[in-house]
Structures are given as C-alpha cells and as structure tokens.
Design a protein that fits this description.
By secondary structure, the protein is mainly α. The chain has a domain of about 35 residues. Strands 1-2 form a two-stranded antiparallel sheet. Helix 4 runs antiparallel to helix 5 and helix 6 packs across helix 7.
Length: about 190
C-alpha cells in the first residue's frame, strides 16, 4: 500500500472505510451485450444454423462483407448516445459511497447495467440502417411478416427503402431480448 504524504493527517475511520469501496469502483466494470447464459438460440429460431446470439450480435456490430451482411451497430451508438447517463450514474455511485453507503457500488452498477441494456434494445427498436435487402424482406414476408410485406410494397411503388416497417435486427425479437448486462472484475492488461 502506498504511504501517505507526511503533511497529510488522517483522522477517524471514514477514510479506512471508503478506500475499499473506491477501489471496488475502480476494479469492477459493467458489460452490456449478450451474457453467456443468454447466448443460445431456441431450436425453432429464424435461422436454425446453430449460431449463438452473441455471434449474431458480433456480426451485426461489425458486418460480414463476405456474406453481404452490412454492419448494423447497436452497442457502440447506444453507449455513445448515453455518455451523460453513464457519467451521472457513476457520479451518483461515488456520492453515495462518500456518504457512507457501502452497498452503493453494487446497487448502482446494477442500475447502470439495466439502463445501458435498455438503451441498446431501444437503439435496435429504432431501426438500424441500412434497410433490409429485398431477399430478406421476401423471406420474412413468406413467414408472415406484415412489415416486410408493407416494405416490399413501398419499394414496388418506387418509394425510398426504410427501416420503420421491417426493422433490421428485429424479426422474432430473440437477439434484442437476449441483450443484458454483467458486472465483473476488470481484466488486467
């Protein structure tokens, strides 16, 4: 442990109690995505390929040009749009810790994780461009998607393609619903 400067005088037990909590805040992280327990897809999933939700989210975040799959990132944009929410949550946790609430770190990180998972789901629900390919729309329309049928009709009329009627990343909702958060110790690099 580091030695305090000679001119620093510490009195009372407050600092002794705060140090482990502040250390905990610095060594714990909130991760948003598809936790291991949410990664398996049901056997009746849209694609029955055996691919996991985590792999699908990775592909959607980064794209897969060799398979003509464009990038449709949701994690990065949701986190970027909510930097103020993240900063405010961390400030609130720190204030509660400094006020002597030892449970503030864990409770605050759970609140933050829930907010960020909801932000990612909202990002997906808004409809991430680019619009779906016609082949995907036809496949969804065959499976009964009214939105896909309406989007195909829109395009048949020569109107611009959109993401409001047939949303990319949302058909069964399986991927979106698997988005959650996890709290863990930071990995040392």
């Amino acid at each position: 442990m580091a030695t305090p400067p000679r001119n620093l005088k510490v009195t009372g037990k407050g600092l002794e109690q705060l140090a482990p909590l502040m250390r905990l805040m610095a060594t714990v992280e909130v991760l948003v995505g598809v936790p291991a327990e949410n990664t398996e897809r049901p056997t009746d999933a849209e694609d029955d390929s055996g691919i996991t939700n985590a792999a699908i989210l990775y592909i959607q975040e980064n794209g897969m040009p060799e398979q003509n799959i464009p990038a449709r990132p949701s994690l990065g944009p949701a986190i970027a749009k909510n930097q103020d929410v993240i900063e405010q949550a961390l400030a609130n946790i720190a204030r509660r810790v400094l006020a002597g609430n030892p449970g503030a770190v864990e409770a605050g990180y759970h609140v933050l994780g829930g907010k960020m998972a909801a932000a990612v789901k909202n990002e997906i629900n808004e409809g991430i461009p680019p619009p779906l390919a016609e082949s995907t729309l036809r496949q969804r329309a065959r499976k009964g998607s009214k939105g896909a049928k309406a989007e195909l009709e829109r395009r048949r009329k020569g109107e611009p393609a959109g993401t409001d009627l047939a949303k990319p990343l949302v058909f069964t909702g399986e991927l979106r619903n698997s988005i959650n958060y996890a709290i863990r110790q930071k990995q040392r690099s």
